[in-house]
Amino acid sequence: MDELIFFINRVLISGTVLGSIYALGAIGITLIFGILRFAHFAHGDMMTMGAFIAFVLATALAAMGIILPLPMAFVVLPVAMVLTAILALGIDKGFYAPLRARGAKPVTLLIASIGVTLMIQGLIRLIFGSGTKSIYVAGESKDIFRFDMSWAGGSRPINITEPQLIMFVLTALIVVALHLFLTRSRLGKAMRAMADNADLAQVSGINTALVVRVTWVIAGSLACVAGTMLALDVALMPDLAFNIVLPIFAAAIVGGLGHAYGAIVGGFLIAFAETLAVFNWTAVLRPLNAVLPEGMALPANLALVPTEYKLTVAFVILVITLLVRPTGIFKGAST
């Protein structure tokens, strides 16, 4: 039983946490690609930017003596989402919209997004420094819930932190809300129509400029949620989400570029593939030592991939997807 509990703690919970972050980030990337037809490489730094906005707001409230039972970064998240969405609109208006107006090709927009990445990182380092910070303010701590499993014969508990629990609930609510928006609202249907065929959508009378603005609002808001939840789970730093840009893009491509549901599935698929690849299977298979021939034993570490090479899992899955099924699981735009 202890082996199963260890697997739940290290794989199921960790994979769900990582999958939630990847999914929220991939939704933004896939919506931007579906509507604007370019790969937005600055999306990871938009996540970091959203986390720092939440940090500033949480610090301000704590300085005013406002302390609540929940993490303050989570309490201020709605305001941080609005501010990040406004900044995302500003980035589009200042950098991408002028290029689109000149008929720039997608590769030009992609290169511009790399410039935006460097700009955001530079501003964050200039304002907040390059060190690691805690997003918990005013003496807050990360509460850990331990579920006793002695009733099932286990000697260790199932551990889950308060931010992880919040993340699970929040991700589920966002997925449901996004589904209802895309399938029930007029604007959501317009976004899906524009993602399928932008020229036909414009001829049909759809306000494409409004669709573009709404796309950036959604992408910026979800980036803020993903970045803040990631900072609550680990720590706040200028390159918080920079190192997970590849897995997020892999999730969007594996699920199907331009397909929001595909981004969600791809996010969890990539996350669990990474988690399973670095998991030490000896911890689960240790009972097999009793049936192995004398002189034989399982190695101390039976992980498929060393932890430091975790990102290569997403890269391998990405390459295989591009070779075997370029349109992804849900048959999105061909990559």
From TrEMBL:
Alphabetical UniProt keywords: Amino-acid transport, Cell inner membrane, Cell membrane, Membrane, Transmembrane, Transmembrane helix, Transport
Gene Ontology terms, MF aspect:
L-isoleucine transmembrane transporter activity; L-leucine transmembrane transporter activity; L-phenylalanine transmembrane transporter activity; L-valine transmembrane transporter activity
Query: Per its UniProt entry, which superkingdom is the organism in?
Result: Bacteria
Q: Where in the cell is it found?
A: Cell membrane
Transmembrane stretches in the record are 12-36, 48-68, 74-95, 107-128, 165-182, 210-234, 240-257, 264-283, 303-324
Extract the InterPro entries matched here.
Answer: ABC_transp_permease, BCAA_transport_permease
Record GO biological process = D-alanine transmembrane transport; L-alanine transport; L-isoleucine import across plasma membrane
Topologically, how does it sit relative to the membrane? Multi-pass membrane protein
What CDD domains is this protein classified in? TM_PBP1_LivH_like
Cellular component (GO) terms are: plasma membrane
The family this protein is said to belong to: Belongs to the binding-protein-dependent transport system permease family. LivHM subfamily.
Q: What is this protein called?
A: Branched-chain amino acid ABC transporter permease
Name the source organism: Devosia elaeis
The taxonomy runs: Bacteria, Pseudomonadati, Pseudomonadota, Alphaproteobacteria, Hyphomicrobiales
